[in-house]
């Protein structure tokens, strides 16, 4: 178990603020994540038209930030020495769909990709920690005062696969 690791940089956005081409790509990735996560009877169909601004419906997504790195060099590389490559980090790792009705936002759907799922538990709740461990969760991180002064939180993640 590590002590307070830093999570990767995330980009959180609203598909309604994107151009149609980019919004369509995000909707396609959300659809793939939806189909991997839920059984066919529970999977929500995300029509491409969702990118259009609707006053009462919002689709929020999270994806890793793009990381620039130097282009490869060497005899087999066709890239220019000064060029940089951008990693393909457009995979959506989470999304939420909510609807606003009469001034209230109602959460319709929330999904987080498998490798990013986890939970937090109070360090002193040993029965809960044992239960989660029996269900396959592993303790990954500790954060002092997570729940308040003197109450340490432990992040537990489920290793699938």
TrEMBL record:
Gene3D superfamilies: 3.40.630.30. This is N-acetyltransferase domain-containing protein. GO terms for molecular function: acyltransferase activity, transferring groups other than amino-acyl groups. Residues 103-161 form the N-acetyltransferase domain. It comes from the Eukaryota. PROSITE patterns: GNAT.
């Amino acid at each position: 178990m590590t002590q307070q690791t830093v999570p990767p940089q995330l980009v959180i956005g609203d598909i309604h603020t994107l151009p149609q081409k980019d919004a369509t790509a995000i909707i396609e990735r959300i659809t793939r994540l939806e189909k991997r996560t839920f059984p066919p009877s529970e999977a929500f169909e995300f029509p491409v038209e969702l990118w259009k601004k609707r006053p009462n419906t919002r689709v929020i997504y999270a994806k890793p930030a793009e990381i620039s790195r130097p282009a490869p060099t060497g005899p087999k590389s066709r890239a220019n020495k000064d060029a940089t490559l951008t990693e393909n980090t457009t995979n959506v790792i989470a999304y939420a769909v909510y609807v606003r009705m009469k001034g209230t936002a109602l959460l319709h759907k929330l999904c987080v990709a498998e490798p990013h799922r986890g939970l937090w538990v109070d360090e002193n709740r040993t029965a809960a920690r044992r239960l989660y461990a029996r269900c396959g969760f592993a303790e990954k991180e500790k954060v002092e005062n997570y729940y308040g002064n003197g109450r340490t939180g432990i992040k537990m993640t489920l290793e699938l696969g």
